[in-house]
Structure formats: C-alpha cells, structure tokens
Design a protein that fits this description.
Elements lengths: L5 H9 L2 H13 L2 E2 H8 L3 H13 L3 E4 L2 E4 L1 H20 L10
Antiparallel strand pairs: 1-3, 2-3
Length: 101
C-alpha cells in the first residue's frame, strides 16, 4: 500500500473524534501501548482495536509489539491540525463582535 500523504491523513483524522483523540495522545506523548491508549482515551477495547487497525491501514499509526506510534506523515498532519484548530479558536468569537453599520 502506498503511503498516505499529509493532506490525506489530515482529512482522514478530522473526520472522526476518536482518531483525533488518538492522534493527539500519540503526538503529545510519543509511543504508547494499547492499554495506555485505552485508559487515556477511555475507549472500549473492541472499539479501540478497530480504530487502531483502521488507522494503521490508512498510514497514520504503526505498531510494533503492541506499541503504537505515529508515522512521519501523521506527525506532519498533527501539526497542520493544530494550526487549523488554533485558527478556528481565534475566529470562534468573531460572530459575537458588534459591528457599526
């Protein structure tokens, strides 16, 4: 399977809250084992297994001996997602600003 591009990974991650949560944990804390991810994200075992398997198939995470870490492109996508999130927060209150007409 060809490696997913940064843009593809960013779009894939943004489409699901659990994927975003897992990406955040791995981006901030580095590699984690399955049980640690399960506890931190408070995700049921079966659901986490499915999400991680899907993320691995899509080139977001790699696993070795039950230790999960982000691919290089996923690390870059995490930075893009962080910038977009910060930009969205900056504009969050724009609609509350009164404007003179």
């Amino acid at each position: 399977m060809a490696e997913a591009t940064v843009e593809e990974i960013a779009g894939y991650i943004s489409g699901n809250v659990k994927r975003k949560q897992i990406l955040d944990v791995l981006e901030k804390n580095g590699s984690k084992d399955f049980e640690s991810l399960r506890k931190i994200t408070r995700t049921p075992k079966v659901m986490l297994e499915k999400v991680l398997k899907n993320m691995e198939e899509n080139g977001v995470v790699i696993s070795q001996n039950d230790i999960y870490s982000l691919t290089e492109n996923a690390k870059k996508a995490a930075n893009i997602a962080l910038r977009q999130s910060n930009k969205a927060k900056a504009h969050m209150y724009d609609s509350n600003v009164q404007r003179d007409i």
